[in-house]
Design brief:
Layout: H1 2-29, H2 36-45, H3 51-57, H4 64-89, H5 98-132, H6 140-160, H7 165-183, H8 186-215, H9 218-221, H10 228-259, H11 270-279, H12 285-295, H13 304-335, H14 339-346, H15 364-371, H16 385-390, H17 396-412
Length: about 425
């Protein structure tokens, strides 16, 4: 609930704050060719945080709770920002009235719900195909290929219908990790784990290389060299709006989240709030992509206002990534000095960079032994998914698990609901002689 609160509602608050500031400040600066629609697009562009850069700095074993919050909020935040950007682009906002606002809200909800639904459907189809159909479990190669292609199919369908592909593929991945991944053989699990980790690492490297090399494109900078002071002022204003927009929802929403939690140990402390605020200040590839999508339709080399917004976006991205990213680790160690010691006591998983799925990849025997532990004993604050599953609270999660065990997993498979099928290849059956 905290992730949804920050990622969805927090992004909306940041969008409103940055858009309002852009209208008030840039409107007075009278930048060429920019209108109200462009200012709202700026709000969506700079509401998208860069979770990739932040997660490169943080470590799951040292700060598990903070890592999970930043990771979850970053993905939902990116999806919400893209949905907001697409919703703004679909309307003529030169004359805003009540009807336009209702249509904008309806379009946002439509994109958000349909994108999520599409991702869930794609994930369930992949789980059902591997569990029920013979061609899905014919070999490890086919299992791995089916998982990759179904995830990519959800992304392509979302792009085809102008939905939020980030949100679609995110929920497709959630469903596949909960159902599909448990339906495949052990060799397929290991293969998919390392295959997706490798592809993710390569994609992150490509993103940083692309942003860096694009910043060296001299052509776009020629149109702002005549007024460097104005370009620096726009970049500084955007950076200030990012700081204010981030603070406008992190601290108020953290206060509301703490009111809903009865256990004091589950509340977000003020030092943690500062860390979450700082960790989300970085902007990255999503902001650059949205800026190019918005301000290059008429050519950034022909319109001076568009050139200023492109160069300012690149400046904010590079400055926030280098400066804020460099200071994140020292800030975490300064504000949360005991986090490293406590996390080492509570976490038994091996250390690996950005391995958010490690707690989900433990073997079934360890999970069953943990589940059979004495639940009456005191359990510390859940700082990992493994601890949350072994000590579930009486919340929405508990009722979802009941519904999942009774209706969903018997049909789509999952942990403990994927019975052995003689035709399925396993490590043992490959070497067994044929007795027929």
């Amino acid at each position: 609930m905290t992730i949804i609160l920050f990622g969805a509602f927090g992004t909306l608050i940041s969008f409103v704050t940055i858009s309002f500031g852009a209208v008030e400040i840039f409107g007075r600066m009278k930048l060429d060719s920019l209108d109200i629609g462009d200012f709202l697009a700026i709000g969506a562009i700079f509401s998208a945080t860069d979770s990739v850069c932040t997660l490169q700095v943080l470590n799951q074993d040292e700060t598990p709770l903070l890592y999970s919050l930043v990771f979850g909020e970053g993905v939902v935040n990116d999806a919400t920002s893209v949905v907001l950007f697409n919703a703004v682009q679909n309307f003529d906002l030169t004359h805003i009235n009540t009807k336009i606002l209702f249509q904008l809200t309806g379009n946002f909800l439509y994109l958000f719900v349909i994108s999520t639904f599409l991702g869930v459907i794609a994930g369930l189809l992949s789980a059902y195909a591997i569990k029920k159909l013979y061609f899905g479990r014919h070999s490890t190669d086919r299992e791995v290929a089916l998982m990759i292609l179904m995830a990519y199919l959800s992304y392509m369908i979302a792009e085809l219908f102008d939905l939020s592909a980030i949100l679609t593929v995110f929920f497709c991945g959630i469903v596949m990790s909960h159902y599909t991944w448990h339906n495949v053989t052990e060799s397929s699990r290991i293969t998919t784990k390392h295959a997706f980790a490798t592809l993710s690492f390569m994609a992150e490297i490509f993103i940083f290389l692309y942003v860096g090399t694009d910043a060296m494109d001299i052509e776009k900078w020629r149109f702002v060299k005549s007024s460097p002071g104005e370009s620096i002022a726009v970049s500084s204003i955007l950076l200030g709006l990012v700081l204010i927009g981030r603070a406008a929802f992190v601290f108020p929403l953290s206060f509301l989240s703490n009111l809903a939690k009865r256990n004091p140990s589950e509340k977000i402390e003020f030092k943690q709030q500062i860390t979450i605020w700082w960790a989300g200040l970085m902007r990255g590839a999503v902001s650059v992509a949205l800026a190019y999508n918005k301000f290059t339709r008429l050519g950034h080399t022909q319109l001076r206002g568009n050139a200023i917004m492109i160069t300012s976006t690149i400046t904010v991205v590079l400055f926030s990534t280098v400066v804020f990213g460099f200071l994140t680790k020292p800030l975490v160690r300064l504000l949360l000095p005991t986090m490293r010691h406590s996390s080492s006591m509570l976490s038994s998983e091996p250390s690996s960079p950005k391995s958010f799925i490690v707690p989900l990849l433990g073997n079934d025997q360890d999970f069953e032994e943990d589940a059979e532990a004495d639940k009456s004993t005191y359990v510390p604050r859940p700082t990992s998914i493994r601890m949350l599953l072994t000590a579930p609270t009486h919340t929405v999660h508990r009722y979802w698990r009941k519904f999942d065990d009774r209706f969903m997993r018997p049909v789509f498979g999952g942990r403990g609901f994927a019975p052995f099928v003689p035709g399925s290849p396993t490590e043992q059956s490959v070497h067994l002689p044929d007795h027929n």
